[in-house]
Amino acid sequence: MKISVNLLLLLFFILFQSQVSGQAFKLEELAAFNTLDMATFKTEIKKHKYTFYDKTESPAFILFEYESPDYTYKIGKFEYTEDKSQDNIEFQFKDKKEYDAYLKAILGAGYKQTEKGKILTGESYLDYLKDKALIRMVQPKTAGDNYTILVFK
Question: pTM to 2 decimals?
Fold first, then answer.
């Protein structure tokens, strides 16, 4: 019950502290989005004026992606059919300054770097862990590609 009340309070503050268009999200907001089921996520993200971009389905997962009104940001929610621990929020942006700001926020929140490597498509990543919360920061392969934050459950 206490967790439900805290989650509702967090969502309430998210809705009232966010800018209306072309917005980035705080780490707490991304984590809160990850706790929502897909239907609730779609409703909440539309309140932020993001529009539907793409849907991808496979036997292993379903992904819904949305874009900000100014096409600066893209956010997606993965829901896996079997391993729910793999459910995640994917947030993409192009600005290195934002990447640095997110990295500072991650470290300031007490996350510790645990792993680094390359994903299948060749981009470098760094994993950060705090308790059981995992955040993966993915750097672009080329200057024209997006930076990506993956927030896992």
Answer: 0.81
